[in-house]
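Why do we bother with a discrete structure alphabet at all? Because it lets us treat a fold like text: something you can write down, compare, and reason about line by line. To make this less abstract, here is a complete entry for Discoidin domain-containing protein. Read it the way you would read a sentence in a foreign language you are learning: slowly, and without expecting to understand everything at once.
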Amino acid sequence: MRTGAIATAVAAMLCTYIVLVVTRADAAETLLSQGKPTTASSTENAGSPASNATDGNTGTRWSSAFSDPQWIQVDLGSTQTITRVALNWEAAYATAYQIQTSANGTTWTQIYATTTSTGGNQSLTVNGSGRYVRVNTTARATQYGVSLWEFQVYGGSTPSGCGTANVAQGKTATASSTENAGTPAASAFDGNNGTRWSSAASDPQWLQVDLGTTQAICGVTLNWEAAYATAFQIQTSTNGTTWTQIYGTTTGTGGVQDLTVTGSGRYVRINGTARATQWGYSLWEVQVRVQGAPPTTNDTPSSSPSQSPSQPPGNTVLLSYKKPGFASTSQNDSNCNPCTPDKAFDNDPASRWATNPTGGWVDPGWIYVDLGATAQIKQVVLQWDPAYAVSYQIQTSNDAANWTSIYNTTTGKGFKETLNVTGTGRYVRMYGTQRSNGYGYSLWEFKVYGTGGQPVQPPANPADPIFPATNLVWSDEFNTGTNVDTSKWTIDPGTGQNGEIQYYTNLENTSIQGGSLVIEARKQTLGGRDYTSGRINTSNKFSTQYGRVEARIKVPKGNGLWPAFWMMGTDFLTGRPWPYNGEIDIMEILGKNTNEIYSTLHAPAYNGGGGYGQKISTVDLSLDYHVYSTEWDSKHMTFRVDNQVILVADKDTVETTRGPWVYDHQFYLILNLAVGGDFPGPIDATTPFPSRMYVDYVRVYK
């Protein structure tokens, strides 16, 4: 949360900062645990079962009861050799735990133990065998239970044969130099033969890629531009510092070179020592192949299905939009204003119906819609607030007095429930008979699909972009003038939120220098604060719905510094409070650790410390410019630094595990450099002032 007051929005929530960390399996391993039967000592609630930790989805998790000890175990189906266990902890992690194996699920053998765990993403090399593998936790790090996004068990042997997949594509790339901003290192690993990396015109020069894990390298393909190397080496490294040569030549002829090599490493480097021309070195593409299959990964989006799992069947249409709603009670007060029945039928995922706390938090509770005429009902979609129904019925009626049940359950799970039903009637009702907690019933959306009725066509979303999007619709290259172009940007002075200690000035802390926007944080007393900085946005100048939004930025390093590139829903400007407008954080980096980047979504049901987000560890991002981007359409968002995926937020997954997707409308762009705050922590004597955030460009493509 970077705008507005947190307290009201999250007063009833238990907030821990949710961080998902990309995990990879080495090519020499087989993932044994995914989708296998998984059980646990306890679960916090129905939305966090044990199976969530082995489903391959880093947006779902298992969480336990709030006590010690706790355990989670997976049945691999047969006895297997175990070589590695990967644990992706949620913020509620264990400080002390053991990894145990068993042949029968009863007698256990310990193969790993710690009492000093720090959570996060842990990759543990182990040596053992068993059909069952268990994480047995004995001390929690927080007052909550223990929680795992993913629990992965690996085993098996090294596969034979050199793979054909390019494992370097989209990975983090760096170089000794670049000729200009248009030829960055990342261009040699983007899968696009029309983009390239080129170096300064001197010897030696190098280009390297981080594969993410140590792998067996068996092939490298170099697609040289006319400025090629006559002498170069292919080198590998496990740490990015100590290098081993696996190929070398002094008679390179350029063109496309398909090289068979033998070596291993996490990093692969092309080290050029003699140029063929007076120019530098230039590569259209570098491909790296590894022994056997490429590593399993959860960080690459699959192609979108032709039909989303939540789409209605057949030729049905949305019947309930803008239709009259009626309920047992409704809430309309300072805590939910208004939460009347019509809000469940307005196709607005950020508004909701709720029963009234005065006399309405009882069973039964109900809400129904008048479709205007008799309809054939085929599907009902319920997007629940945390106040959901465990037991309820979907009923139809022709007179709103006599009801027929067409669906019933006693095991409602909340979040998004898509119910394929068959029924006929003018009226459709959710009739709740058992609440999930001490509150009432509440629905963000209650959608009825079918044929007949008197449907009103809802406004259509813009067409989804086709990625890679290439139509540049807005940009600022920051290559003219001496300060911010106020025809493109709105200056946003004042104090910040979230415990920030700076005062944002009116253009005093921004400038254009050397083709970049500079946002400078200073130790300077102004506006009642002892530090100043800059914040600009495109409100009332430019907004977008969908597309590729990117910026090339160099961030500062220092405790308490907090550079960010993000977006806010434009309805914030017309009075809708945060987080109901939605917030898209493309990039947040904490100056105390510039090797990590966060991308996060904020909405009414997940915000502030509980935002739907992910971080990855990468190179030191303060040393050079990097491209931060999101590709956004009606089904998902994919966040990247350079071409390395940080987060894939799938709409259906978010709705079925966290809450409403509130991003199908216009958003405006924001750049700022905060000082201090709840997230980055305080500054200290080592924090450099002035500190500068450099922005080479901001671009939006459709």
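What the structure line is telling us, in plain words: Residues 651-657 form the longest helix (7 residues). Confidence is low (pLDDT under 50) at residues 1-28, 293-309.
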